[in-house]
Design brief:
There is one protein chain. With about 100 residues, the chain is an alpha+beta fold. The chain has one helix and five strands. The protein has a five-stranded mixed β-barrel with strand order 1-2-3-5-4. A hairpin with a 5-residue loop joins β1 and β2.
Length: about 100
């Protein structure tokens, strides 16, 4: 029997993407579930901690979702910008709803 290490790696990566739940539906986006968290740095701000542990800094979070501990489903578009917060991946909110 012949071994295919490349195929095994592909299967592992695909399985991790499925388990994570943070694969992009729309090109350049990430989707998932997580918790809105108030971060008391640089004057305070709200971030999203995804269930896989990734930190996102929503640049345009609707004030209705600015609630510490709120569970949400989100689609975000990461952007390459510098922020004063220096926390998480800066991202534009494509969609967000309570989970």
């Amino acid at each position: 029997m012949r071994s295919h290490p490349g195929m095994a790696l592909l299967i592992v990566v695909a399985a991790l993407a499925f388990v994570c739940g943070c694969t992009g539906g729309e090109e350049g986006t990430v989707t998932g579930t997580g918790t809105v968290t108030y971060i008391d740095l640089e004057g305070g701000f709200y971030g999203i901690v995804a269930d896989d542990g990734t930190h996102y800094l929503p640049l345009d979070l609707d004030p209705a979702f600015a609630q510490d501990g709120l569970r949400v489903r989100f689609t975000l578009r990461p952007v390459d910008v510098a922020t004063i917060q220096q926390w998480g991946t800066p991202a534009e909110v494509v969609s967000i709803e309570t989970a």
